[in-house]
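Worked problem 6 (solution included).
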Amino acid sequence: MAGLWRSYQALMAKHPWKVQIITAGSLVGVGDVISQQLIERRGLANHNARRTAKMMSIGFFFVGPVVGGWYKVLDKLVTGGTKSAALKKMLVDQVGFAPCFLGAFLGITGTLNGLTVEENVAKLQRDYTDALISNYYLWPPVQIANFYFIPLHHRLAVVQIVAVVWNSYLSWKANKM
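Solution. The predicted structure is:
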């Protein structure tokens, strides 16, 4: 395991942006597999591989770039590594970024699932508030720790590891029709 971590660190040093995006996409996919297998109990025979591929593409092309970029912006908006700075970053993240990101994530998923604009709006109206409240149960303490203890170039990976559970929930929520 230590060798794997060292390899990951070396790749992060050489290609931080690519590695962050690949990590995010892969872990969004893992979240969908967990959602389908453990939450929805589909079984391997009924696993929707196309859905997993869609979720991974959202991770590669939306989650990874957007969250990775957001952390860079946030580090410029709120500087420092103190507890106070970590708290401020968490507040800006959870009040400013999370609501927008979550709405976009659910909307993108609905679009990729073939929902019409009207169906997507109805789904957002039905699911958004519940998902946002669930977000607030999980993410504030994770983000305070992330912003205080974790270097910028590892934040997306740390969040995505925790997010395997979150992604499982989001995949279930986003794909529940």
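Discussion: DSSP finds six helices and no strands in the chain.
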